[in-house]
Fold these 4 entries.
Entry 1:
Amino acid sequence: MPATRPPKKDLPPPPNNKSGPTSGPDCPRKTGTDASRSAVRNALVAAGARDYWPDAAYPPSGYDGELPTITVPASLMKAIAWQESGWQSTILACDGGIGTMQVMPGTASWLNERFGPNYDVNTLAGNVALGAEYLEWEIVYFGAFYFGSFDLDATAPVSADGKEMVLRDVVLAAYNVGPGEVEIDGDGDGQGDYLRVPNQRYVDNVTALITECVCLSY
């Protein structure tokens, strides 16, 4: 386990969820014609199956071990995409979220700089690749610094009261609200001390969709 966490400049920006209109005739809106369900399915499966860390511009800061192959299960990719967009590939949300995986513009820019090559967040293939990269970054970050494992089923007593949490829940929560809302600096030293899930309903919805989503039949 690493002794220190990456500096803040190495962490993704918070989602810009609080700016812009939240309703209106142009919110949300489509920017084109949605890809077919079969095309979205194939893109999600392919993106989740790729290990993006070997192409990263630099290894995880503070982690000295070798990373295993990090991928995202197809069922998880499908469930998140269904929760985020209903598999609509050209939807632009009121908060700025783009496409199938509802990737925020700032997150897309950070991921392209962090991992490379540059993916176009406005295309189906680029959008789902960025979503998968973000999930794989979170798996490694929280797995390395809090769980000592990159298995999504891993548990550890990392909540404020020392209760067990599941890595998958933490990753899902962070995908939705950003890592900064999940990792809490309790003593003000600039390092996260414990984790929380501030969006339990989102986590529960996606968890249910992993096994129950109609999208699994596409």
Entry 2:
Amino acid sequence: MKPDKKDSVATWSAVGMLAFGIAITTAGFIIPPAGEIHDSVLWVLGQALLYSGSIFGITLYTKRKLNEIEETIANRLPKK
């Protein structure tokens, strides 16, 4: 799998998981008893937020570290 495709799949899966978490939480408010959210709904929301946060966090962290490494290598190479 190409790196661009892999990043795209990871990003869209995280966005989909966020949308799922929001949808299930909204449904938890609507389904009787109205206004009360069951613990399982909160657990699923927590898992969705954890997954999405880890995808976005890992992506940002690795890109930042790779940029730092590239900058360090570029600074150590002799100038032409």
Entry 3:
Amino acid sequence: MQQNNNHIRHHKNDRLETIKPDYRGNKIIKGKFANGDELYYPDFSKVLKWQLTRNPQREEKKRDDYVPSVKHGCDFITSKEDMVVWLGHASFFVRLKGINFIIDPVLFSLPLVKRKTELPCQPEQLLNIDFMLLSHAHRDHLDQQSIKTIFKHNPQLKALIPLEVGKILRNTCRHLPYQEAGWYQKYDLVPGAVEVYFMPAMHWHRRGLSDMNKMLWGSFVLKTPELNLYFAGDTAIGPHFEEIADLLGPMDVCIMPIGAYKPSFLMAKSHLNPHEAVRAYNYLRGGTFVPMHYGTFDLSDEPPSEPVRVVQQLAAAGVLQGLKLPAIGEPLLLKDLQ
């Protein structure tokens, strides 16, 4: 689709390093962020079709009472080990080189969507967090109550976020320091032992009636001399996975979304299904595969156990190497994953 160049501009944080050669910044078309060169708007008619169409797996879903198991306790907070800990949905605690990160923290139920799983500990027990990473501003990834709670108990916290998402943080926690990045940019707030890069994802933004694609979305790579850790955020399948591996090297740990993919006519340009998640992981030349974005909130039509069952089948067939399915709150020690 051709675009009038008068309506196109590029945006990045000029104070940050950009690792893709000659990259001008994220393309903004008619005031809206694009997926590379393509504007994407979720089609309301497809949402309406979803609401009016009977789910062919409705009865199966109704009988499916799967929820992820939970390992209770907060020892992972006080441990000195480098680790990855799933907190449910797309929320993770990560320690690298002794630096504590929390990613996309959503610690409570959402408006109209009840959380199905417990946390391993109380939200106020999540202490000594150095950095909060937010992949995008959809409500199941950026929750203002969770951010307020974490910042209240972690006054040293700094946030690493996409372009324009600072507008939400200023209204949420006025004194929370943050740094915005565009795709292919390296944040400069993190001590030198860990590098954090904001990388592409194929997704979209909307929180209100008039802010469609006014804020950026993306993924993260956390890089040390020994390890590359990739957090996919929300994304559809696309060429960005291979590009990320080409720019930053194979991803030793890949945190990949596997849920909220049915009906495909609605979800295919927003989320990965399990087969696509495995394909993307292979494009990333991945090591350990840690699934997320399933089991915590009911956001789609597939039965809750289906995403897990499919990735287990792919692992058994040899298509997926390195699958780890931790309980919520179960530490995956990085020394054991390499």
Entry 4:
Amino acid sequence: MSTYFPNISKIAYEGAKSKNPFAFKHYNPGEVVEGKTMKDHLRFSVVYWHTMCGQGADMFGGPTAIRPWEAGKSGLELAKARVPVFFEFAEKLGAPYYAFHDRDVAPHAVTLKESNQWFDAIVALLKEQQQRTGIKLLWGTSQLFAHARYAQGAATSPNAEAFAFAAAQVKKALEVTKELGGEGYTFWGGREGYSTLWNTNMKRELDHLAKFLHMAVDYAKQIGFKGQFYIEPKPKEPTKHQYDADAAACLNFLREYDLLPHLKLNLETNHATLAGHSMQHEMEVAGASGALGSIDANTGDLLLGWDTDQFPTDVYLTTQCMLGILKYGGFTTGGVNFDAKVRRESIDPEDLFHAHIGGMDAFARGLKIAAAIRADGRLDQFVKDRYASWDNGLGASIEAGKESFASLEKFALEKGEAGGAASGRQEFLENLINEFI
């Protein structure tokens, strides 16, 4: 093993009483919960973009964390230098998966042809490291928002040539994802939306986005890529109105354009809150439609109105996430992907470990708490009892399609007044959850 982090050994589980900042307190990969190991339940993934490419810059200031392995390097040379560092980090962390964007592992060159050549050079290094470590690719994706050609969108650009370049970029990224054994591929449209409707033909742009995704589905079949496709809801980042604003908007789009059989959702907490929802809401919307595929594990600062991508440390949040994941059958191709970055003030390489250890422990606690709540049964029973009137009699008849407005009017006239619903008992249920947390 290399020595980019010479003072840090492989992170081990030491239990809740450990004071070692480089040890797991709750994440025990081999511990069995509801018949599966924690490792298999959580399927942790480290992202390449924030972990390797994040340097602490923001809209008001430049980089603050120039890593020692980056000094004096740029372009392809810098991209090559990052690969062994990343895999040493992920290996010491014990993460079974990683995820990347094409232009984060290998940046834009002058031409698309040269960009593809740079990408191929890095892919060879990624493949070597995957084989050496056993770490797998959770999913790949294309970065279709930073380059000037995508300033007004990629698949939804008013310029057909931008659409063509985006298609060529995704084609290459799909080929690479297949070559690296990726278990999925994610679409997230950083600029697929509009700033003003005065210059926008929304219907045409949505038609183009659907056509783009159908092309991707067709090409995946052509090359034999069996991985799961995801679309990631993301509002206000950075376009004022994005077409993939939340889970419901994405599902409506996928249904309208006959794409729902081909794509599931990759949900992110920070995007949920920017859309005015909770992550619990977004997961329920996706899960109820059979479209809950994967999650980006982060959180936002509720006092700030942008995507801060902080590591998740709130056990209430991770409990809610894991209750949703367990309710809908757990991950298959998806996982808990840490689309999160250390703070601008956290400038040491060791801070990357502290951040990921905290997030992994928080999700491990959430998993154990969620399993305990499910085993206890009181929460599920309360919800079941609250809807008991639909399990027989009139409710069952309505659900079976046996009633009409006329028959229900007859029932209401004869009844005189509807029976009262039982108390929702929100406070009781919040106390119940607190028993476990």
